[in-house]
Amino acid sequence: MLAAAVTGVVWLNSLPALAESSLLHLQFEKLDHALLDAEQVHIYLAQGEGDSSPITVSAERLQLAQQVFTNIRIQCDVSLGKTLLVCAAGKARLRHDRLGRLSGQLGFRYDLTSGLQSVTLTRLQIMDGRVDMVLQGPAPAWQLDTEITGLDLELAQPLLSMAGLTGPVETLEGRISGSVNAMGWSTDTVRADLVLADVSYSGESVVQAASGKVSIDLVKEANDWQGELKLSVGSGELYIVPPLPEQENPPGFYIAINSEPLILDAVFNYAINSSTLIIQDMEYIHPAVMQMNLAGRIQLEPVFSLEGLSLRIDETALENIYPVYMQPWLISTPYNDLTVGGRVAFELGISNGVISALSMKLDKADILDNSARFAVSELSTDIQMTEQRRHESRLSWDSIDIYRIGLGTGAIELASNDLNIEVTHWQDVPLMDGKLRIEELDLREVGTPDFELHMAGAIEAVSLPSLTEALDWPMLGGALDGEFSGLTYSRGDIRMDGELRVRMFDGGVRIDDLNVRDLFGNLPVLTADMIVQGVDMEQLTGTFAFGKITGRLGGYIRDLKLENWQPVAFDARLSTLDDRGTRHRISQKALNNLSQIGGGLRGALSRGFMAYFDEYSYGELGLSCRLANGFCELGGVEAYEGGHYLLTRGGLLPPWVEVKLAGSIIAWDALIKGFEQIAEGEVKIE
After folding, report:
1. Measured distance CA(398)–CA(377) in Å, rounded
2. Strand partners, 22
3. More reliable by pLDDT, 683 or 195
4. How far apart are the C-alpha atoms of 551 and 545, rounded to whole Å?
5. Phi, psi dihedral angles at 588 (to 5 degrees)
């Protein structure tokens, strides 16, 4: 309803200036209406010719659609009928504090019995472009048709920000043209068809020189908006950071648009009362990269939550989709720098915020970690997982390398139930020059942060020379055999349940409490305890150029810690066992090399005639090392004043020898380098 305070209604002979030619002057201090508020309104009616009379309307301030205008002035020759007022070609000018001076042509039709019938505002010069508007009635069935030509978005930026249509913006440039149509007193229907040219935008997301088309249809039904959004971007570059309230650092997607346009078509419903967005169907096409279909339900307020989702990505080339849409999600994971090939298809279902279905098809996929931690060749699978339904599938590969430890060609048969996968059939797989035998293998909570892999099996006949060479460790001879009763991989970590037994050099090593943290991270950490049991030293020393030592070796390596596969801490002690059935003999070459660790021979070998013997008897041999902070605290079999014995006298037959440890602290790198050089020749360790 219109409420007005009339401060003056006067005739011509009482008006100054403009009023000198006026028949009537109306002055309103304030006008209030559902659509507008106006202050200091003046209406002047002058004497005209025939049935038309000039009318001038001015106002100091006008608030319309939450926008404030000042210095408003409207002039028009109004035709006066019995019940109809018509302005065919008027003029309007006004000022906006952010858009500056605005001017255009005005027209209207007003029926004294039924009210306003139409308003036209054409040739409105605004934002370095032009706007033409036609508002047609009668109320409440209003229809507004707007044509936009070449509006400068940089000039529109303050207005868009004020209306909440853009976030923090550093740059907004480009031109926009098209049409906007709205119907209804409270805007029940809206349709917009717009053309964007050379648009650049800089905020959290970035748009560079983009051109395209956007159309939107909105229909309000009760308290819901039903709509369809169509977007076609034909050129430009985009860096899109989606609004994901649950992620502190959401991913950003760089998209370069080449010869074919980027297409988005979404049909949706927005429930105003519940703040719920329902995406009924959305198709997204990035030519040669990805075609995706999506439907979902999102609770926007008071707390953002993804209540339901159905997503399908059609088969596409991995090398195209990975850098654009996969790598950004993996940027803070160990999988952020891969070289990939092959083809992939993917489906995902989410219900009540948790994964309810997952399907992935890989066709001869190649995955190479550029940090040389892992590589997979020709991986193929058709895994499907859904709630309360069993699916059978197959996984095969040509080769798998983990830190240069190679698995050969293999295939497994899988059965899935919910988000868990059980291996139903496994073929033994070549492991370097040996074999990996799997007794049990199952995967749980696939596709979730709680994913776990459980495995039990055995390693057979892996040669230690090939294994140590692959790991860049000092060369060892012999073969590796072992069994593991339970291995779990979860959240990037490996945990060994029970013990791992390795058979080597006619003896064995038992590994307890084996754990690997951040297996594929930048700094993997391995911890374990090891027990050495009855290793034949003749076989062990025979793999080096160290020289021959007979006897059985036992001991422990406690609190072992490897960072990036290099030792940084442990407490180790290795010594000969009390086995009376084994002769303790050491060759001259081995004795000379051992003396390099001890700092020189002590005893009979220093006398000349001892040098003519090839082998000598000894009692016990032992070495301990406590590694910390890059230094090894050395010890031997037994202590003496000022040091330790590495080798004690003993045995039934002479000659007898002994080796004393002259020092107790040595840099770990120097010790390892010395051992490596001894393996190739005789070099003193300092």
Report:
1. 5
2. 46
3. 195
4. 18
5. -60, -40
The type of residue at 531 is I
Token duo for residue 668? 């770990």
Among the listed residues 489, 475, 410, 399, the one whose alpha carbon sits nearest the alpha carbon of residue 678: 475
Q: How confident is the model at residue 601 (pLDDT cuts 50, 70, 90)?
A: very low
Q: Which pTM value belongs to this model?
A: 0.75
Q: What's the pLDDT score for residue 603?
A: 40
Name the band, by pLDDT with cuts 50, 70 and 90, for residue 607: very low
Q: Which helix (H) or strand (E) holds 278?
A: strand 276-286
Letter for the amino acid at 428? Answer: D
Pick the closest to residue 496 from 478, 471, 514 (CA basis).
514
What type of residue is 568?
V
Measure the N-to-C terminal CA separation of the chain; round to a whole number of Å: 101
- Per mean pLDDT, which range of 103-107, 125-129, 427-431, 463-467 is the poorest? 463-467
Number of other CB atoms surrounding residue 611 within 10 Å: 9
Bridge partner residues of 43 (DSSP)? 26, 57
Give the integer Cα–Cα distance in Å for 594 and 551: 15
For residue 296, give the nearest of 284, 288, 285, 306 by alpha carbon.
306
Which pLDDT belongs to residue 185? 63
Q: Cα-atom radius of gyration of the chain, to the nearest Å?
A: 42
Assess contact for 570 and 583: CB atoms under 8 A. no
User: How far apart are alpha carbons 150 and 683 in whole angstroms?
Assistant: 83
- Tokens 């810690």, residue located: 561
Please name the residues in contact with 629: beta carbons below 8 A apart, sequence gap of 6 or more.
none
**Nearest residue to 591 via CA among 620, 616, 554, 574:** 616
8-state DSSP, 656: B
Beta strands in 445-565 (DSSP E): 452-463, 479-490, 493-504, 507-517, 525-536, 552-563
Quickly list H helices, 95-241. Answer: 153-162
DSSP label of 389: B
- Bridge partner list, 343: 317, 363
Residues in the chain: 686
Q: Residue type at 626? A: R
Q: Work out whether strand 622-628 and strand 338-351 pair parallel, antiparallel, or are unpaired.
A: unpaired
82-96, 263-277, 280-294, 335-349: least confident range: 82-96
pLDDT in tens, 442-499: 888 776 778 888 888 888 888 878 888 887 776 676 677 777 878 899 888 999 877 7
Strands 434-444 and 420-426: antiparallel
HSE-up (13 A, CA, CB side) for residue 348: 15
Q: What is the mean pLDDT of residues 240-255?
A: 85
What is the DSSP code string of 104-138? EEEEEEEETTTEEEEEEEEEEEETTEEEEEEEE-S
Closest CA to 523 of 565, 571, 580: 565
Q: Among 262, 289, 423, 399, which residue's Cα sits nearest to residue 343? A: 289
**3-class secondary structure, 595:** helix
What pLDDT score was predicted for residue 611?
Answer: 57
For helices 588-598 and 668-680, angle between their N-to-C axes, nearest 10 degrees: 160
CB 367 within 8 A of CB 340: yes
Residue-wise pLDDT for 566-582, tens only, equals: 899 999 999 998 776 67
> How far is the C-alpha of 625 from the C-alpha of 618, rounded, in Å?
21
Residue listed under structure tokens 């550029």: 370
d(CA 680, CA 686): 17
| DSSP letter (8 states) at residue 372 | S
pLDDT digits (tens, 9 = 90+) for 509-561: 888 899 999 888 888 999 999 999 998 888 888 777 778 899 999 999 999 99
